[in-house]
Amino acid sequence: MVLELVLIVAVFVALTGAIASVGAVLTLVTILALAVITFLFVAPFDWLPGITFGSFVLVPTLNLPVETRTAGYSPALVVGLVLTLRWLLNKQTRLRPNLLGVTCAIFLVWILIRTVGSTNPTSSALWTLNFIVLAATFVAAATSSVRAVEILRKCWLALAFALAIYGCVERALSYNLLFQPLYDLAQNPVSQGWEVYRITTSLGHPLLNGTFFAMSCLLFLSQLFEKAHLYSLAGALLCSAAVYFTGSRGSLISLLVGVACLVLLISIRRRGAGSAYRTLVAVVVLLGALTLASFFVGSGRVGSAEADSSDASRLDSYEVGVLLAQENMLVGVGPGEADQAKRKQVLGDSRRGVESSWLQLTISTGLPGLALFSATIVVALLIAIRRRNDFGLAVLLVYLVSAAFYNLLETNRPALVLLGVALIFCLRSSTSNLGVVESVRQIPARQVAVDFELRAVRQE
After folding, report:
1. What share of the chain is helix, strand, coil (3-state, %, to 5)?
2. Distance CA 426, CA 420 (A)
3. By its UniProt entry, which PANTHER family does this protein fall under (predicted)?
4. Which of 38, 174, 326, 419 is most buried, by CB atoms within 10 Å?
5. Do 264 and 223 contact (CB within 8 A), yes or no?
6. How far apart (Å, rounded) are the C-alpha atoms in residues 320 and 317?
7. Of residues 27 and 185, which shows the higher confidence score?
């Protein structure tokens, strides 16, 4: 407890120095920050993964009127740091080496090496810090209790349901009542420069909203398959509508890929299931078909001059990205620096970065970094298949497909939380299976031996 209090004071002093460096009003902010950090150190550990995710969803750090260097230290990063420290200080924490941990550790070592040799070490260090905290938070949550994972899942579902409703209201009003005034004051404002209105909610850019709602739709569908009730169906419909209102074609494609994967896996694993599952599969397929049809028929953005201009600009971005990847395929320019390298290459384009997360990763960390990161993802997917975590696998697949269409992985550092939570659900997505695993693990070995002996006596 003494060590935790020392850490609270240290974090408080560091936070005060950070605030003082940007010239903000200290008194009220520092007192509030100390109160929040103290709460994080004394709150039940099972709450922290959910608080980390909630702080990412509700606080659009990159789109607030703060300086760019301050925006890198998001509330999700602070909560993740506290979660990591408490997990490391827990005497019961025991790490067992496995293939997923080894591949992730090797990738972390590689990005640390490339951070030192980066073209901009300060910026690369900030992205690397976010990724390390993400990895530590993922490991801590994935090895914690079933209750922590279930709280995280319920937190995601509740926030997604509320935010989907807010997104529908925002689309009806064509204005973001709560967050647009803040977005207008940001250094990189989120403005409606598109042919149709695209919702921004509390997450900021419509593309990030599309990824979040597509992943959320798959989570609601998982609830629908586990236990059919109105809340899950309404959540899936609201999230699919929110994906439509973002106007993101990449997010729609990722949603359809995730739904197709989910239907395929369930139809393979549950061939003998009753009519209830077949009905749910039909609902899911119908939901995807209607979403696709409504987007291409009812959206005014598809086929518009603005959409054609965006497509042309993205194609140019891809071409420049491929050239940069070929030039830096061995070691890369440094973690988090792909967009800056592209802007130096194309001096007239100051805002658009490399419009693909996988191209970003190749440019910044080289082919070794891309291979190590891909190996980590593949191992996680194989574990999900082996453990029959179909819904977690589909959610992670939605993230991977959606990230391929825009600069998510490096440009939006706080959004690394989405990847971490998707990996957690990929490993531990089924509450029923988790309960069985925990109950089996809690049976003492001596009791198992006695039961075995009794069975042997009865057979004789």
Report:
1. 75, 0, 25
2. 10
3. LIPOPOLYSACCHARIDE BIOSYNTHESIS PROTEIN PA4999-RELATED (PTHR37422:SF13), TEICHURONIC ACID BIOSYNTHESIS PROTEIN TUAE (PTHR37422)
4. 419
5. no
6. 5
7. 185
What is the identity of the amino acid at 288?
Answer: G
The total domain count for the chain is: 1
Q: What is the rounded distance in angstroms from the CA atom of residue 349 to the CA atom of residue 8?
A: 43
Strongest mean pLDDT among 90-99, 262-271, 408-417: 408-417
- Residue that has been written with the tokens 């990763």 in this structure: 361
Q: Does the pLDDT at position 276 exceed 50? A: yes
3-class SS string, 81-92: HHHHHHHHHCCC
User: Does residue 120 belong to any structural domain of this protein?
Assistant: yes
Query: What tens digit of pLDDT does each residue of 286-328 get?
Result: 666 566 655 654 555 555 666 666 667 777 777 787 888 888 8
Enter the DSSP assignment of 77.
H
Residue 460 lies in a domain: no
Name the token pair of 278.
Answer: 């077949």
The parent domain of residue 377 ranges over 43-298+305-429
pLDDT above 60 for 20: no
Token pair, residue 3, equals 């060590």
Whether 375 is in a domain gets the answer yes
Of the candidates 142, 165, 164, the one whose C-alpha atom is nearest the C-alpha of residue 153 is 142
Domain assignment present for residue 435? The answer is: no
CA end-to-end span of the chain: 56
Predicted structure pTM score:
0.81
